[in-house]
Each structure stands twice: as C-alpha cells, then as structure tokens.
Amino acid sequence: MTMTQYPLLALIPLLPLLGAAYNAFVGARMQKRFGYAAVHVPAILMPGISFVITVLAFARLVSLPHHERVLTITLWSWMPVGSVDAGVAFLMDPLALVMCGFITFVGTLIHIYSVGYMHEEPSYWRFFSYLNLFMFTMLVLVLADNFILMFVGWEGVGLCSYLLISFWYKEKKNAVAGMKAFIVNRIGDFGFLLGLLLLFWSIHGVTGGSSVVFRNIEEILAQPAVREALSSQTVLGLSLISMIGILFFVGAMGKSAQIPLYVWLPDAMAGPTPVSALIHAATMVTAGVYLVARLHFVFALSPLVMSWVALVGAVTAVFAATIGFFQHDIKKVLAYSTVSQLGYMFIGVGVGAYWVAIFHVMTHAFFKACLFLGSGSVILGCHHEQDMRRMGGLKKFMPVTAWTYFIACCAIAGFPFTSGFFSKDEILWKAFDSGNLLFPGGGLMIWALGALGAVCTAFYMFRSYYMTFTGEYRGAHGHNGHGGHQPHESPRNMTHVLVVLAAFSLVAGFIGLPHLWHLPSYLHHWLDPVFSGSAEIIRSAGHGSGHEWALMIFSVALALTGWAFARWLYRDNRNAAPSRLIESKHPLVCGIHRLVYNKYYVDEIYDAVFVGFVMWFRKICDWIDRNIVDALVNFAGLFGRLVGRVHGLTDTHVVDGAVNGTAWSIASMGSALRLVQTGNLRTYLYIAISGAIALVIMNFILFG
Amino acid sequence: MNPGLQHFLVLSAALFACGLLCLVTRRNAIGLLMGIELIINAANINFVAFSRHLGNDRAGQVFALFGIALAAVGVTVALAIVFALYRNFNKSIDVDDASRLRG
Questions:
Q1: Most buried among A3, A402, A500, A697, using CB within 10 Å?
Q2: Which residues of B touch A686 (CB under 8 A)?
Q3: Rounded to a whole number, what is the distance in Å from the CA of A660 to chain B's nearest CA?
Q4: Residue B52 CA, distance from chain mean position
Q5: Average pLDDT over chain A, rounded to whole?
Q6: How many other CB atoms are found less than 10 A from the CB of residue A441?
Q7: What is the pLDDT averaged over residues A661-678?
C-alpha cells in the first residue's frame, strides 16, 4: 500500500502542545501584564491552525486515489527494540481525518466559548493550558500510527481529564471526582495494555515476528494462517483473538464509560462546563469507539467479542437513559445521555457497522457539544445554578440558548432530517440486519434495546428542555446571594458558538444518507478503504428495504412519542403528574423512583464491594503494619542497640587499649633509650670506635 | 733502599694510631681536633701512596688535595664551635663539661 509523506501532519498535534507550553510557562505573567487576551488568543489560535491543516490534509487526501488515501510522517524512531519499532509517527487515513476534523473544529469552538464562560476565573491561563494539552494528547491518540504512541495519547487524555475535572480543586468534591475518573480509567487502561501485550505476544508466537504498527498488524492478521492460529489457540478457555478483543474492549469501556465502568462520567461533571462539553461528551469519551474502529481487523475476527460489544452497548444505552429520567442537575442529565449515546456507538461497532459508529461519533460531537454548551450558558445565566427545579421560563431571557438547545434536542432524539436521525437510525438498522451475533435473534434483541433507549432519550432530553426553558422562572429568589437577579443571555462569543454547533447538528447528517434513499452516502464511501479489510467478514442477515422503511418510520414514531410524552408532562410546569408521582406513597412507584433516582445504587454497590473491600484490606494491612512490621522494626532497633552496646565496650576496652598500649610502649622505649644519650662526647666516640672495630672484626670473620 | 708501598702504609697506620690515641685520651677540645687532623692526614698519605703504586693515577693525588681542603674547612667550623663552648661553659674547653647538650 503506498503512503504519501505529509510533513504538515506533525503540526496538527504539536501546535496545541506549543499553546499548552506557552500558557503553562508564561501564561500567568502574560495574564497579569497584558490581560486575558494574551492567554486566550494563542490558546484559540493553535487548535484553529490545526483545524486549517486538517482541512489541507483533507484536500491532499481527496487528490489521492481512493484506496491510497493515507498520509504519514515519521518524526523519529522512538523505541527500536527487537521487533518492536515504535516511532513517533503520525498517520492520517480517512478514519483519522474524520476524528481529527471534528476534534479540531469542535475543540476550537469550545476554546472560543470558554473565553466567555471562564471570564471571571483567576487561573484563566491554567485552564487554557490544560485545554490545549488535552487537544494535543487527543490528536496524538487519533493520529498515532502505532499502539505505543496511541497509548501515550490514551493516557494523556486521561491525565488532562483528571486535571480539568478537578480544575476547581479547592472544593473536595471536585478533587474526589477527578480521582474517581482517573482510577476508573486506570482499570480500563490496564485492559488496553494487557490486550496490547497479548496481541504482540501472540502474533510473535504465530509468525515469529511482531509489530506494534497498526498497518503491519492488519497485514499480518489478513493472512488466513495467522487468523486460524489465533482463533484455535485458547487462553483461559477463550480463543486468543477473543481474549485480545475483550481486553481491548475493557480499555474502551473505561474510556468510553460503558457498563460497568461508566460511574466516573456523571461525576466528571464537576469540571467546568466547556470541559464537560469537550472532553466528557464530544471527544475523549469517543476514544473507546475510535479504538474499536481502529482495531476492526481484530474485533471482526471474533464474533463472540463483537456480540459482547454490541450487547454492552445496548444495555448501557437503555440503562443510562433510564437514569436520565429523574435527574435534577441539568449536567447530570446530559452526562447520562452521553453514556447512553456512547452505548449506541458501541452497538454500531459491535455489529460491524464501523462507519456508522464513526458517523454517530461525529454527529454526537456536534449536538452533544451544543447541548453541553447550552447548559453552560444556562448555568452562567442563572448565576451558577445547575438544578432544573430552580430554572424554568428561561426562553424569555435567553432565546438563542433556548433555540439552539431545542435544535440539539431534536437532533439527539432523532427527529427526521436532523443529524442524529441519520446516524442513530443507521445504527439501529445495522443492528437489526446484523448476521454476526452469536445468539439467535441477537440482532433483533439489540435493536429492541436500542429502540427502547431511543424513546427514553427523546423523553428525558425534552424533559430537560421543558423544565429549563418553559413555564415560570422558579429561581428568582435565589439562595446563594444572587437573590433578585434576572437570568441573562450569555455574551455573544458563547451564543455564536452555540449557533454554529446547532447548525451542524441540523445538517451534518446529510453526509451519510441512508442507502435506502438511493442518494450518495459520502461518509460511507469516504471511510470505505479503512474498513474494507474486514468487510467480507461482516455478514448481513439480508433483510430487505421494506424492513428498513418500516424501522425508520417506527423510530421516528418513537422519537415523537418520547417528545410528546415529555411535552405533556413538563411543558410550562403545568401538569401535576410528575410531582404527584414523586410524592406517591404507593410502594411500587416509590420503590422504582428511588431505585432509578439513586442510579440503581451502582455507586453504593461499588462502595460496598470494591471500596469496602479495599478499606477492609487496608485495615488488615494496618494491623499487619502495626503488629508485625512494627515489631520487626522494633526488634531491629533493639538488635541495633545491642550491637551498639557491644561495639561501645569493644571500642573503650579493646581498641582504646590497643592504642594506649602502643603509646605506652613507645614511651617506655623512649625512656630506656634516653639512657644511651649521655651527652658525653667521648662516650660517643668510644661507641663509634668500638663499632668500627667490630665491623673490621666481622669483616675478617665473614670474608677473611 | 727505595721506600715501597708498605712503608707508607705503616707510616699512615702509625699516624692513624697516634690520631686515635689522641682522640680517646684527650678531653681538651683542641686536642681532639688535632687527633682528627692526624687521622685525616693518615688517610691522605694512603691516597697518595696508592696513587703512586697504581701507576701515577692522578685521582689519588686530587683526592688528597680535596682531603686537605676539607680538613681545613672542618677545622674552621670546629674551631667556631670550640669558641662557642669556651664562651658558654665557664671559659672551659673540656668536652666532658659540655655534656649538658644532651636531649
């Protein structure tokens, strides 16, 4: 496969790194001397230029033949050890381009939005430095041409996520949320790493050589002999390839917040809202989907893993959607909605519809960023109020925010011709049509779960819209010192970003029109060369276009049902049914509400099982430390003292005795020798003469 | 009769014996110096005699001249010491009186 060198590619991640370094090292001084503009102008410019370069790279890719659309640049060889040759090398194929395109585009918009949102923040420079660093690591993740460099990006986004969630670290709640995100992500990263090592090792076992570069691994796995070997060897009762897939998917679950590792994402809302929009909705959390899509050649080989991925996605989609029903915090609703939408993406990659999953990743980035930034605008307008029960009627005060939020709600609910409609519908259709799932009727089951999730999504999203924007304003007598302040529309740079994102939420779907309509699906065609390798493995159940029409109409009906239901219950806050339901004493109603409101007690179960176990283990360690380790240490101390005592005695008596004895013997020898020195000249003379005579005599005796 | 090597050696031995006798018997510092002078000259006679005997080797002659010069130097220094003794030990030059020099 021919690849085209494209040196500009390296600048896409490196420019944000430059911006991050600028703000990290001189940002604080610049902010003090030249004002906030000196901080945010470079911070916005760097990802902006990255976006421009991405567009240039797009133009370059288009000019290449369809199946040779790969740009690379190798900066330097990083780890040439044995058969590992991980370089700092970037690769841009159509898949990476799509990711890169919306990351830099949405990222730049969110940077602009942050100027308005964070305008009262004293450590403004720190915020922009972290945001730029995040852009850098995310782009490294997407553009890496080998696992090792991708892992650097993978860990880097986790770090930035941690830094930004606990951005306001002075409140303990935020710091704890950051740690939770970091630790749960770490579990996933462990899976990623194990998967990588197992893949490397097993390929080495089969072929005698191995690689960490995606392209080479794809080529190796394309050989039937290698596929056969990896599928037939087993480890822990699973085939090697399934084990590898499962481990990589554990990594994806952690990063993309799937059951059971989703718990960190709702807590991650403790960070500033632009961060929630950028990292915890639009970009970082889709890294797991990207990983599975990037490794389609591994996942496609194991129907078991594919089914599992799809099932986890479907269950997560419904599970998180139901939690969204009773949340009062507007950002929490959006967080659970993100978890649920990520579930849809995993349905997509699980049934082998990789391009559709990436399509949904992209459309989701637009409408979810729009929703989050809209909620940020609301929160700012209501003076940092996040509880929807104290909002209401905001449409009067902030019309732009209300309209953009409404449009994004339509998109996420899947109203016809919005972007979410095209991508979600395609996912559900592919799930229905999937012939790859292990269990019979699997496709239908996944589809049913997805459809259930869709109606839930429409319901809770419009619930949040109606609670926030319609009816009477309920927060007029604020409790936090802002009493009497009217809510106000956000500054223009924020609303403009919302308008752009809302526009994209509306029209972005038109690049991936369904085949049913006999219109070109540009995105499918564009991503085709990336996924063509595993295309022949993915089977279709062969349902006809009649089914597809029916499903499409059905899901539109579902979306409208959810919307109508939400409108009936929550519009203008008139209907008393919700409050009556909450106050109901009926044990069944009450019990279900409590269960869902408390998020199925998953956090509590984790607390009891894992945290409890760790705490119990900590107590044991503590006991061991106090009673055994300390005893050993004390014994060592005692022993040391004993040795010291013996040593001291030896020193005073033996060593000092030897030294004093030497001195004494020298002194006594001296006093004995003093007698010889009479001072009498003639005595000396006699001695000298007798010595000479003795020498002469000796001479005669010995040599005579 | 021509004097041979042995005559000179006997003369030198006699001279050496006189010098040694002088050294061990005298307590007068000047007397000691005179004894040393006799011993040095006994050695000088030996040098010259052996020089002649080994076929007019000039080295022996030169050594004798050096010996005479060194003896003169030695006497100069020794006389200075004797003066110092004379001044510090009650105008006496008896070496036994100077035993206080000992450490």
A1: A402
A2: 24
A3: 25
A4: 22
A5: 88
A6: 10
A7: 87
Q: Do B27 and A680 touch (CB under 8 A)?
A: no
- A 630-689 residues with CB < 8 A to B: 674, 677-682, 685-686, 689
Distance, CA of A445 to CA of A449 (rounded, Å)? 6
Average pLDDT of A224-252?
A: 88
Q: Is B91 on the interface with A (CB under 8 A)?
A: no
Distance from CA of B1 to the nearest CA of A (A): 32
| Residue showing tokens 């905001």 | A394
DSSP B95: G
Cβ of B99 and A689 within 8 Å?
no
| CB–CB contact B102 A681 (8 Å) | no
Give the mutation candidate from B33, B82, B96 for the A interface (greatest A CB count, under 10 A).
B96
H helical segments located in A144-239 = 147-165, 172-207, 214-221, 224-232
| pLDDT bucket at A481, cuts 50 / 70 / 90 | very low
- Residue B33 three-state SS: helix
Residue A8 CB contacts under 8 Å (≥ 6 apart), including other chains: A53, A56, A57, A73
Residues of A whose CB is below 8 A from B96: 680-682
Q: Which of A674, A681, A683, A686 has the highest number of chain B CBs within 10 A, making it the mutation to test binding with B?
A: A681
Size of interface A-B (CB pairs under 8 A): 30
Contacts of B95 (CB under 8 A, 6+ apart): A680, A681, A682, B27, B28, B29, B32, B85
CA angle B49, B50, B53 (to 5 degrees): 90
The answer to whether A349 touches A292, Cβ cutoff 8 Å, is yes
Is the Cβ of B23 closer than 8 Å to some Cβ of chain A?
A: yes
Q: Is the pLDDT at A614 greater than 90, yes or no?
A: no
CB pair distance less than 8 Å for B98 and A681: yes
Answer yes or no: are the C-beta atoms of A562 and A456 closer than 8 Å: yes
Q: In percent, how much of chain A has pLDDT > 90?
A: 45
B24–A685: do the CB atoms touch at under 8 Å? yes
**Residue B43 touches partner A, C-beta closer than 8 Å:** no
DSSP secondary-structure letter at A261? Answer: S
Is the sign of the CA dihedral A626, A632, A634, A637 positive or negative? negative
What is the average pLDDT across A552-571?
A: 89
Which domains does chain B show, CATH number per domain?
5-98 (1.10.287.3510)
Q: Across the interface, do B95 and A681 touch by the CB < 8 Å criterion? A: yes
Tokens of A81: 């050890």
Give the distance from residue A663's alpha carbon to the nearest chain B alpha carbon, in angstroms: 20
How many Cα neighbours within 13 Å face the side chain of A457?
34
If DSSP codes are grouped into helix, strand and coil, which group holds residue A680?
coil
DSSP string, A500-551: HHHHHHHHGGGGG--GGGT---HHHHHHHHHHGGGTTT--B----HHHHHHH
Segment A397-448, tens digit of pLDDT:
899 999 999 999 999 998 888 999 999 988 998 888 887 677 777 888 899 9
Residue type, A106: V
Contact list, A682 vs chain B (CB under 8 Å): 24, 27, 95-96
What is the predicted pLDDT for the residue at B16?
93
What the block records as the tokens of A387 is 């509880």
Alpha carbon distances (Å) from A133 to A344, B61, B79:
29, 101, 98
End-to-end CA distance of chain B: 56
Min distance A644 CA to chain B CA atoms (Å): 46
pTM of the full structure: 0.76
Q: What is the mean pLDDT of residues A355-368?
A: 93
pLDDT tens figures, A44-98:
999 999 999 999 999 999 998 888 889 999 998 888 887 788 889 999 999 999 9
